[in-house]
């Protein structure tokens, strides 16, 4: 009876041991793969440059001597939220085009990983800004990004106006140069017409005088 039971246990133990080894190997491989992916993602170049407005806000927030007034901190937080609005717009505009390029194989997986990491970072940034805003005033976190969006739009309008005004001087200069060239060409044509008419009058006069001499 015992040899038979031992054989049964051995036959049952072999597949169990195989499954244990297989599961263990897959677990180790999965952990190593995730760590490698995380290391590769950490080594990728950030999608956005350093967040200067956030760094300024955090520096002011933790300054103790002298302590920064709340009004200045609120203004710095609003500037931080405004920069976040710009980054959200860039993320939304780039996502659809980037997905299409990735499906076609026109861009590499590294670029997509950089983009996904940027999405997660901006989500965390938005949550942090909302928490900071609510710490200053109740429910400010619900409206701070609306105010930031208006500021971003106003900034964009001012930049466009500045760009138009900077081009206006160049346009005026070009039109003045063009006007001078047209006037110069027009005066040249007038001079040529006068010269041509004078030559024709002289030719008619000579011909007339020649006829008179011939009659005499």
UniProtKB/TrEMBL annotation:
Residues 191-200 have a biased composition (Basic and acidic residues). GO terms for biological process: post-translational protein targeting to membrane, translocation. Residues 191-216 are annotated as: Disordered. The chain crosses the membrane at residues 6-29. Keywords: Membrane, Transmembrane, Transmembrane helix. The keyword Phosphoprotein does not apply. The keyword Transport does not apply. One of its GO terms (cellular component) is Sec62/Sec63 complex. PANTHER family: TRANSLOCATION PROTEIN SEC66. This is Translocation protein-like protein sec66. It comes from Ophiobolus disseminans.
